[in-house]
Amino acid sequence: MKKLNKILTITCLAMLVLSSCNTDFLETKPLDEISSSDVFTDPDLAQAYINGIYLNFHKNLQKRMKAVYSDEGHRRDDSGALAFNRSQLTADVIPSWAHEEWGSLYQNIRRCNLFLDEIQKADFEKDSYIGEVRFLRAWLYHRLASLYGGVPIISKSYQLTDDLKAPRNSYEEVVKFIVDDCDAAASALPDVQTGLNNGRATKGAALALKARTLLYAASDLHNTTVFGGYAHPELLGYTQGARTDRWTAAKNAAKAVIDMNLYNLYKATPGPADNIVQNYVDVFIKKQTEEDIWVRFETPNTTGGDQNLAMMNGPNGYDSEGNNAPSANLVDAFEMKDGTKFSWTNPQHASAPYQNREPRLYANILYEGARWQKRPAFSIGLDPVGLVNVGYSEKWNAATGTVEIVPGLDSRNSPFNPWNSGQTLYLCRKMVDESVLPTYDQGQWQAVSWRYFRYAEILLNYAEACIELGEDAEARRYINMVRTRAGLPGVTEIGAALRARYRNERRIELMYEDHRFFDVRRWVIGPEGYGKFYKANVTYKLKPDKTTSAVPTIFHEVLEERAWLNKAYFFPIMRDELNKNEKLIQNPDY
After folding, report:
1. 151: which residues sit within 8 A by CB, 6+ positions away?
2. Tens digit of pLDDT for each residue in 147-161?
3. The pTM is what?
């Protein structure tokens, strides 16, 4: 989106300075005072106000990505994340959660409502402004509904004299509210934003949000009985109406985005000489492609610190921090390049688990022996090639007649920053710009965009709705578009087998993009997503002739025992919110 580092107060001050030549200077307001009549009757100030709403959105490219709160990833040093992944949520504590919360979301909703109330006074053309803010409000309510179910619908800016206590609306009512906002936004917003407005909400973004909202609404969590004894099922999902109608609505909403004919998969049909791995890397490294529907742009100045994945997620032997390490569970989900399932029971697969895998594995995961960037000065002498070395080598010490264990440069016992090593022995390459040197002393920061919506998700959303409506052939067609770009053969399954294949495809294609956390919940597969959490074991074994094997022995073993309680399908409303508003009803089992 348009760079949102324009600070509202600075913008307002500049506008006031430009207008301070009024000859009736005794009537001029102090330059540090800006009234609502100024903000909401001037198009530039109104736009700056909207910038502030964007700025308060949660950051995604950070030290603790959402992946570590699902079976995708692992936070190397955070016991709070483990507590979360063992369903240890209460109305007092949500341990180590790096997500939007009830209070912050409603604060931003109030900003939207204030704008929508006050902008009515403006005498400039304001439809696009209203459409943009209605989209932003819909996004905020979508996040609330995805975490809490039905929530209070607040559509006006409360004043101090108002009764601030409101009950929760039903889930169905919240979904309708979101959809209505999306429809209104879509009718007011342009198909494309250009120039400095590039990245602001568009019609496609509004329709994509509608499609995702309706997909979630049709899913198992909101249409099956998970909490049989809960007295208020309407807060959790639908209690009437035909589910097929909801799947049809989700299908039609996704198709509306497709039928705009504005978006395409990046390098949708690779040629024989194409580098499919690099094509897929570029989807997330390029500032923008034809696949992007709604993007948050970043620059090195705005990225910095926790927002710099080149620093946060890379190998410690490169002076990176090994955060958000992919699980071995996720690595096992990547197929072979011929489209068959990887299996540790297949001797050929087990002997060389990183060979002949599908291209997205190499685009998304760093593993033992993976080619990475040139090492920094402090470690390049030990590895001039630049190969990830997270494992251990058994070396024969002839002088002592013993076997020594030599740690890899990127291992947990590395001579370089061992505390920063990822514990799974895998590292996330996705969204990491290899051209950026991550070391602190280099002072370099990457400028990788965050994709809120991209076209691949829309194709998969459409396919999922088709599967649930029994339209298998149509579903396969759209799943296979995504697979063709990834260099994989098409799927041929039907029925339940197609659903399972689709879910794995979605898991791989959308990894680390904040989907798996919600997919596990809406599909009601919590025990599957929060069971045993695996890591790799990588050892270069000592051979009988006392030389060290050049080929590592690799297997997967349990790193953590996670646990699932059904209450974690929804977040608790925190106790301080309940204390402030006795009309709120708590979610089940809290």
Report:
1. 102, 141, 144, 145, 168, 169, 174
2. 999 999 999 987 767
3. 0.92
